[in-house]
Design brief:
Elements: E1 7-17, H1 22-37, H2 41-52, E2 58-60, E3 63-64, E4 67-70, E5 77-87, E6 97-106, H3 110-125, H4 127-135, H5 139-147
Helix pairs in contact: 1-2
Length: about 160
Amino acid sequence: MEYLSVHIDTAAITASATVLSKQQIFEILAKKAAQSYGLDAQLVLERINDRESLGSTGFGGSVAIPHARIKELDQCVGLFIRLESPVNFDAHDGQDVDMVFGLLSPEQGSAEHLKALAEISRFLRDETIVAKLRGAASEDALYVLLTGQQDQQAA
């Protein structure tokens, strides 16, 4: 099985979020970015909203990859949310979204950002992987599916 190389902290994963809107998803991503990576939540929220204003990051198959560039980062980092119920994300295929992978990248890392987006997109287009992510019982299980690593803090 393929795994993501983008750094993702175990605390940046939410297995079951109840939200009613795309904006609430962005607020959760910003809060998790602050908790997991020490970033300013308001700045992250502004950058995600700025990017989303250019067009929806819902790319199909009920999955979205909102992303933004953040000056304070020195590497790409990820955040993952699985929703209790799908929400409208203005996705290109018209489907509501139930899984969200947020990507935050260094402001000056254009090539790294594009490479990470492509990797995440390929990963989340694999129907077998998506089915396993939808069926995972916990954040720890999602972490293993996303990274192939056990959470060292759980040992």
